[in-house]
Amino acid sequence: MLYPHERSLVDEMKNRPFALIGVNSDDLDRAQAAVRKNEINWRSFQNKRKGSESSISDDWLLYTWPTIVVLDDEFKVRYRGGNCDEATAIARQLVSELDGKPAEVDGQ
Amino acid sequence: MKAKIITLFFVTSLCVQVATGQVEESPDQKFEDLIAEVEVANQAWKARLAALREAEKNGGPSIPADAFQSPLIPFVAKFDTAAKTYADTPDAIPYLTWLAQNALPMVGDQRKAAKDAVRTLVTTHRKSPSLEKLEWMVGRLDYFYDEKQALEVGLQLEKESPSSKVRAYATFSRVGATINKAPVDSDDFRKAKSEILTVLEGVEIKDLASSVKTRIEMRENFSLGMSPPDIVGVDLDGAEFALSDYKGKVLFIDFWGDW
Asked: What is the pTM of this model?
């Protein structure tokens, strides 16, 4: 379960050039319940588009869940995969390069 | 005189046989008759639904759920039985094709009959040009078989089908997953891309060609260092926003679900 890790990442990156954005594949009721239950503090797209057969994950050619994509400030892909720790390390490094503050490391 | 009597005897005999149903209809005629029955049922279904809609609009009762049920369902067993009657002969092909084209969106036994029909077509009747009518089904053999069997059946189609379209779909069935999932800088991806683009060059399957080219382009543009397409959508409260609203920040995008 990535929720606690992601919640703390959002808190850690507050006021820094960072945003965590979700793309949720559940039906809306379930997604909203998950947000309340898990105190999810980031914004999510609905993966399935209303009135359309296509979904965001189709457009991005993603076939496995969960998948994390990290984009840098120029909107370029810097990570794509399922390893949350690796994605987090890359994101921290990128944010640090942007604002000049040192990257934190989990557990320190 | 004698010849006339003999001719008259045969004509009379034939008339009696036809009238009493003793003359076996040809497989083609049987198929046409069944299709005509389907058409009659379809028209009756449409007319009933239109009448119910009109009544509902004028304050009558709501349309019962069963009114929406496909009128084709009762015919699946008939086509299936006919296909089995002509099993292993080309006469089964129209029945199997009808099942594949019409019963796949159904559920339970009807869906099973459709899947079995596709399996029979792509194996027993793999040399028939009629397989062109299956279109995407030949391109998604993994929907009908496990991975190993899908590969075997696809390779056989690529080798033996007389139709370049069928062969192209079979090639897509074999390399589609690699196109979708293999790293774009891998030899597997490059080989799959080359194979499918070569095959598609020689055939006129616009939907497949454009879909494959878009996928390849997307994959290649989605590798590290490339920019993916923007996301414009709605959040869980229904408010519209775009990923590009956050450009200039590092974005950690999580494709998630509450599993």
From this structure: 0.60
Look at chain A and report how many structural domains it folds into: 1
Token pair of B183 as six digits: 């790293």
- Answer yes or no: is A23 within a domain: yes
**A 37-96 residues inside an 8 A Cβ radius of B:** 38, 42-47, 49-50, 56-57, 59-63, 65-80, 87-88, 91, 94-95
> Would you call B222 and A80 a contact, using CB atoms and an 8 Å cutoff?
yes
Per the domain annotation, does A34 fall within a domain? Answer: yes
Cα Rg for chain A, rounded, in angstroms? 15
Torsion, Cα B242 B248 B250 B251, to 10 degrees, reads: 10
* Radius of gyration of chain B measured on its C-alpha atoms: 27
Contact between chains at A61 and B180 (C-beta distance less than 8 A) = yes
Antiparallel, parallel or unpaired: β A18-24 and B250-256: parallel
- pLDDT higher than threshold 50 for residue B227: yes
Cβ of B255 within 8 Å of Cβ of A65? The answer is yes
Pairing of strands B240-242, B232-234: antiparallel
Q: What is the pLDDT of residues A24-73, one digit of tens each?
A: 999 899 999 999 998 898 999 999 887 766 789 888 877 778 889 999 99
Sign of the C-alpha dihedral computed for residues A26, A53, B64 and B67 taken in this order: negative
Which tens digit of pLDDT belongs to each residue from B98-147?
999 999 988 999 999 999 999 999 999 999 999 999 988 999 999 999 99
